[in-house]
Amino acid sequence: MNSRREFLLRSGALAVGTALMPSFTFAGGKKLKGTSNIGVQLYTFRKAMGEDAVGTLKKIAALGIKEIESAGSNKGYYYGLKPKEMQQVCKDLGMTLRSGHIALNDKWEQTLDDAAEAGQEYLICSSMPSKGQSVDNYKKVAASFNKAGEESKKRGIKFGYHNHDYEFESDNGHVLYDVLMDNTQADLVHMELDLGWVVASGNDPMVYFAKYPGRFPLWHLKDMDMAKHESTEFGKGGLDIVDILKHQKESGLKYYFVEQEEYTNDPWDSMKENIAYLKRI
Fold first, then answer.
1. Do 234 and 242 form a contact (C-beta atoms < 8 A)?
2. Which of 38, 120, 233, 263 is the most exposed place for a label (fewest CB within 10 A)?
3. In whole angstroms, what is the distance from residue 90 CA to residue 82 CA?
4. C-alpha–C-alpha distance, residues 124 and 39, integer Å
């Protein structure tokens, strides 16, 4: 694990390898997947979505993006649009409103109603609903996640959780993210693995794919500048994107969403660069 971790953290090595290898295959001759149905987490375009949701979605569609994951905003989870309206705008632009980041709070029933109206497949809790970096708290959260998963399943929606780096801290020798994984039901809680934060925490996503096969149907595909501890354009950080994309089967991957929270210039230039990178590999 240590040697792989060191490899993952070596910025720049991937870009050289990519230039030398224009295409990749899985065992058995299958081509590397990952460029046909590119998704985006709308937090990447948070300012533009807040100012003009429909116009911004049009610009996103023009980039060739097909899958959309929404995020919270000061205008709500649908940026001032009605849930059904948000779904229809995406559909008219050739995109699918696949998932949405939400909070598990006292507005949960309304969140479920809205997601059902929007036709979303996934609802993803974006951060821990109760604070406390302890085994006891993570077990309590796991129980609440199982309950939310049951309630979502009745509506035909899949519930899940999105990690950061702090979930990989330990309490009394137990990795807290592992506590969460061990105490949630696989058929009720569908994990969205933020690959950038996993690597930034000093861990290896492939270790988690092996330990919990099929538990990660969603990814946030995010490269990380390890020195600054912030996201960056693909190929400029510490995530081995080519290797990650070869492990989709072990992960159980269904969809991935590109997310970039910080940019070299602006989110549009960064996303164009990321899409060009994915097409290159």
1. no
2. 263
3. 12
4. 15
Integer Cα distance of 176 and 134 in angstroms: 7
Is the Cβ–Cβ distance between 35 and 248 less than 8 Å? no
Which residue type does 168 have? F
Structure tokens at 165: 């780096």
Q: Supply 263's token pair.
A: 């940019």
Least confident of 34-43, 64-73, 142-151: 34-43
- Taking the alpha carbons at both ends of the chain, their separation in whole angstroms is 25
Type of residue found at 273: E
Q: What pLDDT, on a 0 to 100 scale, did the predictor assign at position 209?
A: 98
Indicate the residue type of 54. Answer: V
Q: 30-34, 100-104, 132-136, 173-177: lowest mean pLDDT where?
A: 30-34
Element (H, E) at 192: strand 192-194
Contacts of 209 (CB under 8 A, 6+ apart): 216, 247, 250, 251
Q: Could you give the domains of the chain?
A: 2-16+24-273 (3.20.20.150)
Q: Are strands 158-161 and 67-70 parallel, antiparallel or unpaired?
A: unpaired
Alpha-carbon span 243 to 10, nearest angstrom: 14
Q: Is the pLDDT of residue 8 over 80?
A: no
Distance CA 105, CA 49 (A): 24
Q: How many residues does the chain have?
A: 281
103-158 per-position pLDDT tens digit:
999 999 999 999 999 999 999 999 999 999 999 999 999 999 999 999 999 999 99
In contact, 216 and 251? CB cutoff 8 Å: yes
Q: How many CA atoms lie within 13 A of 1 on its CB side?
A: 9
Q: How far apart are CA 143 and CA 125, in angstroms?
A: 14
